[in-house]
Amino acid sequence: MQTKLQVRQQAATGNDQDLSRPRMATNDTDFSDILDVAALRAECEALVEHYGARKDELRNALLAVLKKASQDGREKAKALLFEDGSGLRCAYRISWLQDQLITVLYDFAVQHIFPRQKDKFAITAVGGYGRDTLAPGSDIDLLFLFLPKPEDDTHKAVEFVLYVLWDMGFKVGHATRTVEECIRLSKSDMTIRTAILEMRYICGLERLAHELETRFDKEVVTNTGPEFIAAKLAERDERHRKAGDTRYLVEPNVKEGKGGLRDMHTLFWISKYYYHVRDPAELVKLGVLSRHEYRLFMKAEDFLWAVRCHMHFLTNKAEERLSFDIQREIAEALGYNARPGLSAVERFMKHYFLVAKDVGDLTRILCAALEDQQAKATPGLTGVISRFAHRSRKIAGSIEFVEDRGRIALANPDVFKRDPVSLIRLFHVADINGLEFHPDALKRVTRSLSLIDNDLRENEEANRLFLAILTSRRDPALILRRMNEAGVLGRFIPEFGKIVSMMQFSMYHHYTVDEHLIRAVDVLSEIDKGNANDTHPLVNQLMPGVEDRDALYVAVLLHDVAKGRQEDHSIAGAKVARKLGPRFGLSPKQTEIVVWLIEEHLTMSMVAQTRDLTDRKTITDFADRVQSLDRLKMLLILTVCDIRAVGPGVWNGWKGQLLRTLYYETELLLAGGFSEVSRKERAKSAADALFNALSDWSQKDRKTYSKLHYQPYLLSVPLEDQIRHTQFIRQTDKAGQALSTMVRTDSFHAITEITVLSPDHPRLLTVIAGACAAAGANIADAQIFTTSDGRALDTIHINREFADDADELRRAATIGKMIEDVLSGRKRLPEVIATRTKNRRKNKAFVIPPSVTMSNTLSNKFTVIEVECLDRTGLLSEITAVLSDLSLDIQSARITTFGEKVIDTFYVTDLVGQKITNDNKRGNIIARLKAVMSGEEDELRQRMPSGIIAPSNTRLLNADKKAGSAA
Predict the structure, then answer these.
(1) CA–CA gap between residue 82 and residue 735 (Å, rounded)
(2) Regulation of activity: what does the record state (predicted)?
(3) pLDDT score of 362 more than 70
(4) For the residues of 621-678, what is the DSSP string, one character each?
(5) How far apart are CA 652 and CA 751, in angstroms?
(6) Are 535 and 578 in contact (CB under 8 A)?
(7) In the chain, where are the structural domains located?
């Protein structure tokens, strides 16, 4: 018995006889290991003897027999898939099984139900089924071919067959036509034309299928190759566009995605239509594919079919999206194991993306062959075929390459052999002349990759050209992506080659590592051109003043180049940069800048999102790491590029605001302008500014409301927000309300702000967080303040959901009402959260061990508690409840979500305003937090008070303490 690995190795070494049998020969192939056809026929005949003329009972008995045969056969196909690992064999087996069931059903119908309809129609397979392959959950696509002027009983016989198949649980797509109708419709409808191209006879009147094949080739296919190819390639491009136009999405669609099975089907359609072949193996004889490329085709198809069949068997449905929920199980089913730095699922997904890349290579090679062999096609067609009637012209300054209708092509087939540097020069010349790439040029690049050796990697001219490509003022990301797809980038920079097609098993990262890095360069290029003012106004302003542009581009390209290693990728990546910098022609100073940027490329993002930026210790510690203004500028730009390139929806204006705040505070300190005025004096100045801003109020109200706030509030909240809050508090007081909420939307920052004014209570943040969770709102930040009259003024920032302000305001008002209802006791928090999570399936795809760290060195005044774990609804409410149970006062909180992972940071003191220093108490805090993050504590305490309008003595004690410190 072969293992899965042996099957893969067999395919790789070229033993392809078993996998390359003609695709239209399933009727002649014996798969009796999954179904004994003779025994099935005998069982069906026995039904006739038993039930006689009782047709309804006979039909029901037949249905039960066929249904059991189908289920048993598929279970056997599943077992064999686990044994031999071959996806194609599994698809062939299921297709063969379906053929036998349909044939037995047809024979039964025309012998016992409609005996005069034998040889009156034919049943043929189309679609994937017509290609002789069928996934476990796929639709069954059938074409019933009729004689001219079919009888009524012919239609009834077809209906009998269809209804039995439907009752067996199959999704059957079908059409009933005469041969003449098929020919007429296929001339005007490309979808029907493609279906008939793939038609395969199953049973019935065979001459009808033969007639259709003959007439289709003669009347439809002849002289329409360019038209069909252009349509299919345009159809493929549109499908790619809808899917995001990348094959490197971390949850790919195995059937429809770029580099998936549908792309292979397109290759098969084009080959069969233009070259009149029935199997890709025949393309080797025609010189379209080399034997190695054909083996690559078979390996790719077998692998994709294995993945798809396992997905269908696992989910019991036609699941085509390789989602995080099933990736681990598919990896296990395919026999992948973990390696240092990469989990089993990450190794599996890397293999998947490498296969998707191979499919892209095969597409380019086939297109190049089509252009070569169809150079005299009809002019005026669109797409790739429109370029067949090509004219080449010289490119200024280049003797190696020529221009062919806007594409760069080789002047001589031996260009790369004569001078391997031309493998890099090709992309440089294409960049400076704004040319696309001729498929033949890319095909020859792919076939010349062995020329990229150490000599070429160390070649000064090759590295100069590469650096010019990377730092181009035009479109460096486009050229880098072409280099990567052709395999040049990974060969020229072997360290980059290690992360090609590598995925990170995380909801945060949307692309493979190599795609992420190229997208980061694209963002940098956009900033460099001054086109980022709307989204990144600060970096757009800073970029022209960056002292070393080349170093910044290299750092952006390489910042994640060491992902997948056991060593921290920032440290390992810095080592790679120290080696590559001199090779690229960077000076020692430039190289050290690149090294530092890669070592610190996560620092600014983490500080901005997980630390209190109003705490001076945060700024001084960060400034100590940065040390210079130029480093600060480049690190900010690198950070923006990194976050923007993670995936759609990850960047928002709120993150930009946090980064800007950190930048400005650090810039002030590095420039020697950090205020030496005491906090007390600065707080008094802020209070005076608020008093003066309320000039249209009565003198009494001005004094009363400008003295409500303590130092932390006055020093951290902008004056314009202080004015809004003060107006809100006065309005609440005039209305005689004990609690109130105020909402504000901010489309640029993609944040909605909810401000809560309430009698203070130790569980206030717990209730607010729980109410937000119940309303489905994701909290991004929390500012927690206590007023001098014992009330809490808490501001919660939630991630925006709707683009329209009116819709977002309605949503925010609903959340605010939920907070008020819970605080007032009209609703109970455990019940509203339970309602939200009742039908939510627990996330089992990701495992993040709960982690808690406590530090007294990150702040001069507070103990900083950082928790990291798997996200879930209501988590923040549970964590803050535990902190309240432990008598900790939360001064501020930073709530950060990275896909499925949360990193929440709380600045806390004990009840008398001191840091937590007792080792036993620290150990108890860590243990309790880990327990709640693991779900080992009760999700919410049933004893939680029904309403918390009454002020809390505990928080009043804190208010008195803060008043004393402020005085």
Answers:
(1) 71
(2) Uridylyltransferase (UTase) activity is inhibited by glutamine, while glutamine activates uridylyl-removing (UR) activity.
(3) yes
(4) HHHHHH-SHHHHHHHHHHHHHHHHTT-TTT--HHHHHHHHHHHHHHHHHHTT----S-
(5) 8
(6) no
(7) 4-222, 228-384, 493-670, 678-737, 738-959
Residues 6+ apart with CB under 8 A from 734: none
Strands 863-870 and 392-395: unpaired
Q: What is the pLDDT of residues 202-254, one digit of tens each?
A: 999 999 999 999 999 999 998 888 888 888 888 887 877 776 555 556 788 88
Phi, psi of 721 (to 5 degrees): -75, -35
For the ranges 9-18, 536-545, 747-756, the lowest mean pLDDT is seen at 9-18
**Which residues, 6+ apart, have CB-to-CB distance to 503 below 8 Å?**
248, 250, 346, 349, 350, 353, 509, 512, 513
User: Among all chains, which residue has been given the structure tokens 């109003």?
Assistant: 614
| 755 three-state secondary structure | strand
Assigned token pair, 118: 């034998």
**648 in Cβ contact with 597 (< 8 Å):** no
Beta strand pairing call for 851-855 and 863-870: antiparallel
Helix, strand, or coil (residue 964):
helix
What pTM, to 2 d.p., does this model score?
0.74
Dihedral, CA of residue 704, residue 706, residue 709 and residue 715, to nearest 10: -170
228-384 — its CATH code? 1.20.120.330
479 φ/ψ angles, rounded to the nearest 5 degrees: -70, -40
Residue 836: per-residue pLDDT: 61
CATH no. for 493-670: 1.10.3210
Strand partners, 687: none
- Residue 397 scores a pLDDT above 50: yes
Cα–Cα distance measured from residue 954 to residue 808, given in angstroms and rounded to the nearest whole number: 36
- % of the chain residues with pLDDT over 70: 86
Angle between helices 875-885 and 919-933 (to 10 degrees): 150
Cα–Cα distance for residue pair 368/362, rounded to 1 Å: 10
In this structure, are residues 222 and 271 in contact, taking their beta carbons and an 8 Å threshold? no
Could you tell me whether strands 751-759 and 791-799 are parallel, antiparallel, or unpaired per DSSP bridges? antiparallel
Separation between Cα atoms, residue 307 and residue 260, nearest integer Å: 11
CATH dotted code for 4-222 = 3.30.460.10
In angstroms, the Cα distances linking 368 to 181, 362, 438, 637, 640 are 35, 10, 8, 40, 39
Q: What is the pLDDT of residues 936-951, one digit of tens each?
A: 654 434 444 444 444 4
Of 697, 755, 696, 695, nearest to 725 by C-alpha is 755
Write 698-702 long-range contacts (CB < 8 A, 24+).
701/730
For residue 753, the SS3 value is strand
